[in-house]
Amino acid sequence: MHLNPYGEEVVNLAADLANRRPRTADELADRCREAGLVLERPVAQEDLDRTQDALDRWEKVVDATDEDERAALLNGMLAASAAYPRLTDHAGSGWHLHYRDDWQSLGPLLFQLISVGTALHLAGRGMHRLRRCAVTGCATIFADTSRTGRQRYCSQRCANRDAVRRHRARTTGRDD
């Protein structure tokens, strides 16, 4: 049984690729394989270029200032990557849905996965659940998959660093 492969995992992959942009086609292929993608074709420089363009557009979705802007930007990505959903057993791992054309190279494939996955993530969890870390100086992107939907930091390390900063700001100037 396959659960939705277009939700949390692909948004986390997009965040990982955006936070640490791959420099070569081989690096892109390796990181996609590590994330569980089945690569059906060799990865070329054009795939890396297309992925960089997709990540540039996706970061605009992340940085949108309100829900309407975020939806408009994401709808533009969805329109550019539109394909009919289809059942597939391409990897012999069981029937599942793809929201993309078969036998695509990695660049267009990632564009479609990121577009659909982000739309499903935001529609299912909330339009605010994709952002950058709240710590000043940290621009790391993350998908909020917390139970409460109030995650503000990319990591526990940043949360602790901000807590220490706030504590020091409160205690500075006190006579103890």
Number of helices: 6
- First and last CA, distance: 61 Å
**Number of extended strands:** 4
State the low-pLDDT regions, or none: none
What would you call the structural class?
A: mainly alpha
Major sheet strand order: 1-2
- SSE pattern: HHHHEEHEEH
Largest sheet features: 2 strands, antiparallel
Radius of gyration: 19 Å
β-sheet strand percentage: 5-15%
Please state the overall shape, judged from the principal axes of the Cα atoms: elongated
Helix content: 40-55%
Mean pLDDT: 90
Describe this protein with a few key phrases.
two-stranded antiparallel sheet; 176 residues; two-stranded antiparallel ribbon; mainly alpha; 6 helices
Give a written overview of the molecule.
This protein is mainly α. It is 51% helix and 7% strand. It has helices spanning 8-19, 25-34, 45-62, 67-80, 106-125, 156-171; strands spanning 86-88, 96-98, 130-132, 141-143. Strand 3 (130-132) and strand 4 form a beta hairpin. Helix 3 (45-62) packs parallel to helix 5. The longest helix is centred in the middle third of the chain and has 20 residues, at 106-125. The protein is elongated. The model has no long low-confidence stretch (mean pLDDT 90).
